[in-house]
Amino acid sequence: MDFVAEDLAALLRERHQTVSVVIPARNEAATVGDVVSVLRRQLVDDVQLVSELVVVDSDSTDETAAIAADAGAIVHRSADIASHLGSHPGKGEALWKSLFVTTGDHLVFVDADLTSWGPHFVTGLVGALTADPATQLVKGWYDRVLDVDGRPKSTEGGRVTELVARPVLDLWWPDLAGVVQPLAGEWAATRALMESISVPTGYGVEIASLIDTHTRHGLDGIAQVDLGARAHRHQKDHDLAVMAAELLAVVDSRRAGEPRPIDVAAQELQQFTREDGWRTRPVPLVQRPPAREQVGYPAGAR
Ligand SMILES: O=c1ccn([C@@H]2O[C@H](COP(=O)(O)OP(=O)(O)O[C@H]3O[C@H](CO)[C@@H](O)[C@H](O)[C@H]3O)[C@@H](O)[C@H]2O)c(=O)[nH]1
Ligand SMILES: O=C(O)[C@H](O)COP(=O)(O)O
Q: Fewest CB within 10 angstroms: 40, 155, 208, 287, which?
């Protein structure tokens, strides 16, 4: 089904509900301006579907924050948000902190490194999230463009998705085997859900929120929406391996249901190359507790 921004904006007005779009960004000066300016023009200014367009700058050392602000986003530094709660590096941290500076009933997350995408990503996610009151979380799905190392371009992207996330879900959560892009960085959730779940501070945020939503709300709480095709900046294999190690630990901590604490200190990944020998990579495994339990959480946010 295609969702029309004007119709969704009218529906949300009728329901007295609002949408916040959150874009986590770490050193995305090359792409964040385009992502923000297109969303700003089409879904904030032309059609008032999005009430808040927020970039959470995740310890960038480039011009990401200034470019995002110039393009029309409200920009917060992740480390400055709710600073009494400390700060961790990572995408999950940026999303968790966003709960303290947004007010939307519906939260839509969009990565900042997109190179092939469109505002229909947001419209589709909002449409699917508001279509059925049981739905708490929506994952976008799309063809994943792979364009690395001068190899011919293909739709075999999403390497961690295909080699780690989908197989492990298939094994331990067969109900979730039909989620096409469990790691999609473009997804949406109700605030009520997001403020009630634990959030890994790194790349585990997507798989954790998917599993935790299933644990609490079953499959009825989850929807997915076809967003066409998506291309983004690719990470190197050894960096994706650290992500994979994090995902496995996050998943393992949820095998028995609600997440159990992870032994953060024990997590390291050894990697070897002939040129550089062995290298120890820390695997970030801190998890934030539910935001609504935190001192200073804006309980009146809605
Ligand atoms: O410390 C960080 C690292 C990344 N990001 C941002 O998070 C987004 C996604 O990061 P990226 O490095 O592009 O992740 P991918 O390699 O694309 O990883 C895929 O898989 C991850 C694990 O599920 C998801 O978080 C991603 O959204 C998904 O695209 C981008 O906007 C980044 O700038 C941060 O805000 N802080
Ligand atoms: O989503 C994923 O699996 C990772 O982001 C890797 O994606 P890529 O293989 O397209 O770089």
A: 155
What pTM was estimated for this model as a whole? 0.97
Q: How far is the CA of 40 from the centre of ligand 2 (A)?
A: 26
239-254, pLDDT tens digit by residue? 999 999 999 999 999 9
The answer to whether the beta carbons of residues 156 and 144 sit under 8 Å apart is yes
State pLDDT tens for residues 43-53.
Answer: 999 999 999 99
Q: Which of 26, 117, 146, 161 to mutate to test the pocket of ligand 2 (most atoms within 8 A of CB)?
A: 161
Domains of the chain: 5-285 (3.90.550.10)
C-alpha pair distances (Å), 56 with each of 90, 190, 224, 235, 247: 11, 19, 25, 20, 22
Residue whose pair of structure tokens reads 């739905």 in the numeric block: 135
| Interface TM-score (ipTM) > 0.90 | yes
